[in-house]
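Figure 3 (text version): structure tokens given as input.
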């Protein structure tokens, strides 16, 4: 636990800083002055010395893309390595907040400072908004002491970046950690190719939940679209339509052609245990690698970080199966 003394507040947009426009709420610049005025009016709020950087373009987080994750990663690394900041508070919209927290957890492996993401369900300045509570709470935690790594702070709770999900669309307690089964072998060390210094490139990824009636040709069309990795959300403990020989053949062919196939459970509190049912074993035998109890956000962010680092499919599968930052092991 270490108190942050020199904080970068990285403002990316999101509801927390939105203002009303004729088209509805939209991200607005000028949040530095609003934060400065709030802290002057509330001297009881603990806050490290800080400066604010607006990351252009400001986004409604519904528009978040991999390129924006890479831009956030670059800004954070520069702030720490070149500018001497010992902590980063990232202001972000809630729609994809958990996705960004998970992706940054893997993009910033080895970075020896805390990074906290927060946002709000209502804009700052709106009556009864949660914006200032979330912001002042995050500032207070960083001023009093926090472990390194990527965290998500919301509604008074500090959550691990690779375990959080957005569960509610209207309540202030929108984010939580689902009690998924967690087990796995932790990586003894990280190669330089997965270190925060390693730049990444965009990756063509897809997520597909299994559902009754999924046809082999539908799956083939997705796999033939040029994707490099597929995250398959299986039933329960990792089962699927294992009596559909054509669908299993499509998966096998995709793996042989170099597509990384990973599996998680589509149950909010589920975990992939392929050997529990024969249906799961048959899916595994097509080349799927188990994501254990990882969330969709963590699994997608991890695939992006691994394949984006230029790892081969075999290498990426090996690291996907290991715990890198608490995403699959307790």
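Below: residues designed for each position.
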């Amino acid at each position: 636990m270490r108190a942050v003394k020199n904080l970068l507040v990285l403002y990316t947009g999101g509801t927390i800083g939105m203002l009303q426009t004729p088209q509805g709420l939209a991200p607005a610049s000028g949040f530095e002055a609003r934060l400065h005025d709030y802290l002057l009016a509330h001297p009881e709020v603990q806050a490290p010395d800080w400066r604010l950087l607006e990351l252009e373009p400001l986004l409604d987080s519904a528009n978040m893309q991999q390129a924006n994750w890479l831009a956030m990663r670059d800004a954070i690394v520069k702030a720490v390595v070149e500018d001497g900041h010992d902590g980063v508070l990232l202001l972000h919209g809630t729609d994809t907040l958990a996705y960004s927290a998970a992706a940054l957890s893997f993009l910033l492996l080895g970075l020896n400072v805390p990074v906290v993401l927060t946002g709000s369900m209502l804009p700052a300045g709106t009556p009864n908004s949660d914006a200032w509570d979330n912001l002042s709470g995050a500032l207070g935690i960083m001023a009093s002491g926090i472990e390194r790594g990527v965290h998500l702070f919301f509604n008074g709770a500090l959550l691990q970046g690779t375990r959080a999900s957005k569960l509610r669309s209207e309540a202030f307690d929108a984010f939580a950690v689902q009690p998924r089964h967690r087990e796995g072998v932790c990586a003894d060390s990280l190669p330089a190719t997965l270190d925060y210094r390693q730049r990444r490139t965009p990756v063509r990824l897809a997520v597909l939940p299994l559902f009754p009636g999924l046809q082999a040709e539908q799956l083939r069309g997705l796999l033939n679209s040029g994707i490099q990795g597929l995250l398959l959300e299986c039933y329960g403990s990792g089962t699927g339509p294992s009596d559909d020989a054509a669908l299993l053949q499509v998966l096998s062919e995709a793996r042989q052609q170099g597509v990384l196939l990973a599996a998680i459970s589509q149950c909010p509190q589920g975990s992939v245990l392929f050997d529990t049912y024969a249906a799961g074993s048959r899916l595994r035998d097509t080349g799927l690698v188990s994501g254990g109890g990882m969330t969709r956000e963590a699994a997608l962010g991890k695939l992006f970080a691994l394949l984006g680092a230029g790892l081969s499919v075999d290498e990426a599968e090996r690291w996907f199966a290991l715990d890198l930052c608490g995403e699959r092991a307790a």
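Residues 37 and 64 are 29 Å apart (CA to CA).
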